Amino acid sequence: xxxxxxxxxxxxxxxxxxxxxxxxxxxxxxxxxxxxxxxxxxxxxxxxxxxxxxxxxxxxxxxxxxxxxxxxxxxxxxxxxxxxxxxxxxxxxxxxxxxxxxxxxxxxxxxxxxxxxxxxxxxxxxxxxxxxxxxxxxxxxxxxxxxxxxxxxxxxxxxxxxxxxxxxxxxxxxxxxxxxxxxxxxxxxxxxxxxxxxxxxxxxxxxxxxxxxxxxxxxxxxxxxxxxxxxxxxxxxxxxxxxxxxxxxxxxxxxxxxxxxxxxxxxxxxxxxxxxxxxxxxxxxxxxxxxxxxxxxxxxxxxxxxxxxxxxxxxxxxxxxxxxxxxxxxxxxxxxxxxxxxxxxxxxxxxxxxxxxxxxxxxxxxxxxxxxxxxxxxxxxxxxxxxxxxxxxxxxxxxxxxxxxxxxxxxxxxxxxxxxxxxxxxxxxxxxxxxxxxxxxxxxxxxxxxxxxxxxxxxxxxxxxxxxxxxxxxxxxxxxxxxxxxxxxxxxxxxxxxxxxxxxxxxxxxxxxxxxxxxxxxxxxxxxxxxxxxxxxxxxxxxxxxxxxxxxxxxxxxxxxxxxxxxxxxxxxxxxxxxxxxxxxxxxxxxxxxxxxxxxxxxxxxxxxxxxxxxxxxxxxxxxxxxxxxxxxxxxxxxxxxxxxxxxxxxxxxxxxxxxxxxxxxxxxxxxxxxxxxxxxxxxxxxxxxxxxxxxxxxxxxxxxxxxxxxxxxxx
Length: 716
Fold this sequence. Notes:
Layout: H1 10-18, H2 26-41, E1 48-53, H3 54-57, H4 59-63, E2 72-79, E3 84-91, H5 105-116, H6 121-141, E4 150-156, H7 158-168, E5 180-184, H8 191-197, H9 199-209, H10 222-236, E6 242-245, H11 251-255, E7 266-267, H12 281-284, H13 289-300, H14 303-319, H15 323-347, H16 361-371, H17 379-428, H18 431-440, H19 446-473, H20 476-487, H21 491-524, H22 528-540, H23 542-549, E8 555-558, E9 561-564, E10 574-575, H24 576-628, H25 665-699, H26 704-711
Parallel strand pairs: 3-4, 4-5, 5-6, 6-7
Antiparallel strand pairs: 1-2, 2-3, 8-9, 9-10
Helix pairs in contact: 1-2, 1-23, 5-13, 5-14, 6-7, 8-9, 16-21, 17-19, 17-21, 19-21, 20-21, 24-25, 24-26
């Protein structure tokens, strides 16, 4: 094989990349690689496969460093016989949420790391992972007769960005990290991102454009910065080692025309994942560059917080919201639910104060009625009133604690939300021309545009009302009054103070409801614009890429399973991967059952039939011994006869009349019938799975490899 590239087709690369999103264990990845390789090539993978996962390699590193959201896998292929020694580093693309957290860490890196150039933590984690695994591989291979390792890099989406930047950061074209890099629907690197990662490049652009501060880079004309950056890296490395595979409709390709994104590497045309659509690039090109720069400069202010405290620090600094609060709420929710249930049970059906109040006034009305109840009643009523007063006092105390705890969050939101609203308004003031651009390219109609603006205006109005309500809550005079009322012993003053807060919260709740209604109105606007973005999102996925690569064949793919259509019968699609799994697992289950039946028969023979014969043999042997040597058993006579004076008895003959019959026929007939029934069922199961295979082979009589696929066991 001479160490030639093992995964040498685009569809093989794409299918192996898709495994990265399935969160499989090492052995599962290995067996899936063997399955995919066999399905695509019709030959067995002639190499030992070792899997290295970032969760394992970076485990200790993550204990003391902020979670960047990076995930990846390195596959090592080796064979001394085939002279094969290759590794593939796969960096995973963006996920909405990570495996163990609700936080969208990948997307915050897309924003802060790539678009703004405010952090490099995913790149650094990817570099550490690749370096560490290569060290492990070198140590493992040092006593083996293997060629020099050939390294390849794969990446999709954000992973395509990471793997490309790893290649760009090679020392020079003679010391490349990878022999070749393959990026599918990747997020291109930006000049802003590379200025943070590459110190030498930062110095060059500082000198070239006379930068005085970090934010000056956003003031460089985008075309000039793009040209300078691309020329710098094309002179540094061999760009032909970077290969892009891109869907024409891909949303990231559509967005890559905005400021700062680079074009480095080769691209052999585009994949057409949906001939009905042309993508969103024409739309994105109409967004004013000045607005994009404003957003960059705004977000760059939060890079320090992101670098120090990750996603939590970024969100807290941006909005005043601390994501750790949500973690606390989620972790305590079950405990809280149990507490509420306990309280409800103890009250025995009495409706808790404030549980169903719709307006703040009803709080005071209810309180007056409660406090005015006579307390000199007797019996059960007296106990009821004591419980009511105790419950009322506890409710006031609980509400007071909740309000006091809410104040710091309200203050933080009051400080941060105006900054966010101002940034959003930059986009909103240009909403009309952006939507007009959609009208111009026939993505939406004028009527649809007006509906969108109306709903957006409704959302803005509600947001402003929420901000106004928060401002009123934090009015100095109200705040002083709140402090006094929460500490007073006068129930009426307490209720009034709490009522003002609840009224404010009710206002916020109503405005949120209006925002939801406006959002539903936006969703209900029937536009091809939304459909275009939906198509772009679908085209971004590896599933769409894989099927586009196979569109001229009788093959399609769903969730990395191969579907085939018989020649001339394109309307029939058979899941070959699943059929093979069913056949092989069915046979494996049948063989396991047969093995268990054979063990059961052996146990029956040894524990019953053989045991009976052994016991029978022992008895007959004892009888023979007694009959052959009767004198030895003379002592037994003394146990039943009196010896004569001066004499003794001598036993001269023993004759044992004993018949040991064989086991009844019914004894093993029942067992044999049971075994025959089980074996008959197993044969039926084997026949059923064989029929599945035969039916598929009949459908694909011209496909020789189909039969071979059923016989190839890839180990999962």
